[in-house]
Amino acid sequence: MKKLLSVLIVLMLVLGLTVTCVADIAGADDIEDTMTSADGTYELAFITDVGQLKDKSFNQGTWNGVKSYAAEHGLSYKYYQPANGDQATDDDRYDAIKAAVDGGAKVAVCAGYMQGAALTKAADEFKDTMFVFIDGWPLTGADGNIMSNVAPVVFKEEQCGYFAGYALVKEGFEKIGFCGGGGGTNPACCRYGYGFAQGIDAAAAELGKTVDLNYSWLYGATFSASPELQTMVNGWYENGIEVVFACGGPMFDSITAAAAENDCFVVGVDSDQSYDSDTVVTSALKGVGEAAYLAIAKYYDGNWDEIAGTGINLGAAEGATGLPTETWSMQTYTVEEYEDMLAAVIAGELAVDDNYENLSDEALESVNLSIVE
Question: For 118-144, what is the mean pLDDT?
Answer without folding.
Answer: 97
